Amino acid sequence: MPTGRTTDGAADTAPEEEGPDPRFAALPGRPGKIIAVHLSYRSRADQRGRRPEAPSYFLKPSSSVAASPSTVERPPGTELLAFEGEVALVIGRPARHVTEQDAWSHVGWVTAADDLGLYDLRANDKGSNTRSKGRDGYTPVGPGLVDASTVDPAGLRVRTWVNGDLVQEDTTADLLFTLPQIVADLAQHLTLETGDVILTGTPAGSSVVVPGDVVEVEVDAPTAAGTPSSGRLVTTVVEGEGGFDPGLGSLPSVDDTQRAEAWGSREAAGLPAEDPGAEEAQGETAAGPGLDPDLRELLLQVPVAGLSQQLRQRGLDNVTIDGVRPLHPGAKLVGVARTLRFVPNREDLFRSHGGGYNAQKRVFDAVREGEVVVIEARGEAGSGTLGDILAIRAHANGAAGIVTDGGVRDHDAVAAVGIPVYSAGAHPAVLGRRHVPWDHDLTIACGGTTVQPGDILVGDADGVVVIPPGLAREVADAALAKESEDAWIAERVAEGHPVDGLFPMDAGWRARYDSWRHEQA
């Protein structure tokens, strides 16, 4: 190794030559550029509800490349890391202004890729995907290369597995734009250089993965001699460290549109089916003024039994949430409903909807001051539907209470939080024993009663009643007046008067009561 002396006499040692970068082990070298197609498979386009007339593209940095096996980080505070199994083309010789017929001869190799993306970061990138798909490790490629000259560009197959389950399978015969067309289209705008990588889009089935999940992608040519294959590209999702500095740029944010696109559909994301006007109605509920403070004070004075009686007199007899008891019988619950629905546990659905930032966690994060989290658990008390952490979160947000017709886990710890909670009882098992958190902010059934977002709930030691918002003041005023009347009757009974004719009052007692009220006015 050559050495020398610097002018100050210190040893001058030439740096050792670095070895090949292991990230690019599956490629001829570090690619000069990585170009990805936005939407290319018919199955994916149908899933998204739109079919582009021509291909469109975005760039990914070569620093995002990873070999197989590798790990990929989901940053703290994010929820929508999605995989996309894809056929990757590696350019073998430069291409510039080539015909579609000649384009495939410029492709040297074919392999598998996973075009990972973090939907939490898409909002401000306007389709460039710079932050959402350009992160370190977000382009695993490999592990092996297939000679492109030995395969039909329309006969390639891509398959993806998550935790061993096949979740994507399609062939390039299903592409909206052929692989040679994509190469030729790109080559009329820029020079494709040797080693450049083209990610050719993903079929239907792309969805969200969470820490602990293992994603495998394989590209092969089933009809070619020997069925050449890339082998399985293996990536394990891990929880990242370090958050985002709000002073430097926009922070991760998600909405139901991003959730639906990341998961693949609204149903897969645990969201209710789209209903014209529903978004507007939910927006009004979420952004509305909440419960009027004067009405709240009035409802705090009225017992649930009195409200139930007044609702019955107005034809509403099915407005009590049955089978629930308070953790704090002396505490009063008054608030506006924010709803959450669980469905019966099914193992495959719990894997897709139970982990990560699921519907349950989203509701407890989003509940606002004066709202009541109301949970439909079908009266199934064989597991918890919340525990102390979620109770603390609701309490910290200023929630008015929690009502569930299922069980409560960590019963004593939840009680110690102090927030009013009504449940079907205590149970030590976790949610997944009986339930899958499915959707939220929609009409549900709790304790045999229909509850809609924005309904008013009032609870005391007798139970919980659901009041339509438009009737709340009327029934509260009437119930309070009836309480005053009943208190006067109770005093007369205590004086020794028989209840006959007094409860309810006949004309004579009614006249005496009206006279008493006039004197008190």
TrEMBL record:
Which residues take part in binding Mg(2+)?
A: 410
What's the cofactor? Mg(2+)
Task: Enumerate the spans annotated as Fumarylacetoacetase-like C-terminal domain.
Answer: 33-237
Return any one Pfam family short name.
FAA_hydrolase
Query: One GO molecular function term?
Result: metal ion binding
Which keywords annotate this record? Magnesium, Metal-binding
> What InterPro entries does the database record attribute to this sequence?
Fumarylacetoacetase-like_C, Fumarylacetoacetase_C_sf, RraA/RraA-like, RraA/RraA-like_sf
Gene3D superfamilies from the UniProt entry: Fumarylacetoacetase-like, C-terminal domain, Ribonuclease E inhibitor RraA/RraA-like
Bias class Low complexity marks the residues at: 1-13, 61-72
Which stretches are tagged as biased composition: Basic and acidic residues? 43-53
Q: Where does substrate bind?
A: 387-390, 409
Q: Where is the signal peptide?
A: none
Q: Where is this region: Disordered?
A: 1-29, 43-76, 126-146, 241-289
Q: What is this protein called?
A: Fumarylacetoacetase-like C-terminal domain-containing protein
- Native organism is Serinicoccus chungangensis
* Species classification: Bacteria, Bacillati, Actinomycetota, Actinomycetes, Micrococcales
